Predict the 3D structure of the following.
Amino acid sequence: MQHFDPIESLANMRHEFGEHGGVNMSIETSTTFTVMDAETMPEIFQGHFGPEQGGCYLYGRHFNPTVYVLGRQIAALEGAESGYCTASGMSAIAGTVMQLCSSGDHIVSSSTVYGGTFALFKEYLPEKCGLSVSFVDAGDLSAVEAAFTERTKLLYVEAMSNPTLRVADIPRLAKIAHAHGAQLVVDNTFCPLILSPLQLGADIVIHSLTKFINGASDAIAGAVCGSTDFISSLMDLHQGSFMLLGPTMDPRVAYSISMRLAHLGLRVSEHSRRALTFASRLEELGLPVIYPGLPTHPDHTLLDGMRNQGYGWGGIFCVDLETSAEASTFMELLQNKDRFGLMAVSLGFFETLLSCSALSTSSEMTPEEQARAGIRPGLVRVSIGYTGSLEQRWSQMEDALRKMGRLPAGS
Ligand code: PLP
């Protein structure tokens, strides 16, 4: 693999100036765009003109200049030819899958994916679109290979799985998908900058920008990155799932996310630094912690071989407290007594977010499906924030553990 650094790639982009030479780009709020000559309009419809050809825009659901810039920036972060932004991570996933598959086609998916993705694959797409989906343990490469059929169009995994934090072996999974004429689609929401799936052989990368990339928990947004051919197909006037289903990003959201990309590297590094410190200290205390940055994590070496240097191992760790009652007590103490963080779903926020996955973001799965996915009932997912000082936060965590009788005597 050639040297690739997402932040360097972003910095290599041409700077976007504002309309009057402002140092920040302008927000283009218009939903429709004029042409100078009547004959230009049909030429845009026929694809002869567009954002990259003559700088022509047509209508905001097709392309918007501000959203278009953010798409190119996310593509630069992933080292993709092209990128496009959507109103949510879910619409990015749904639109991508519907673009790649037709009725009767088949998907191989990791059994450990975000609950919304799981429900989309297990229930919605089979029922509404006639797709079939096989869920497999993505770490078991022979099971992955065996699940392919003649109709398999894509293999879908999360680079780091929600919430179990297992890491996908992207180069090997890409080989398997390609050997079957299918594409490898990777949701990289949990580890932007840390992993660059396209550089490792994946074909398409999806993000929920709602999480780390935006970082302020004030916008729902998504993105898809891949080849220019694929991204253009999503915008096709006749067959494009983004053009026709319309999960359009608001340009004000695009602007505000774009303004936060400049400090994404700093944020991810600090999330990771704190997560590693917390996970190491919890492990030293003998607590059941799951974090890929710990040498005891089953995918530590795999992740080390794939990750970009300088961004750590990710901002999320889990503590397995066995029962949902213990998980609830822990989260209540951390939020209501110790002010350590907030009991809320989502991740990648500057404050710490705590959730019990089995009862929340993975509750679309039955208990058996959760067990197969490795989601235990007392698993608390901690998306570590960076407000306050690290030592202040650690003493709050210790206090909660002490109250639960989980600290060894004397500590
Ligand atoms: N992918 C992952 C890994 C997620 O955790 C989520 C949401 O939690 C999504 C996709 C969906 O993203 P959004 O909420 O932006 O639609």
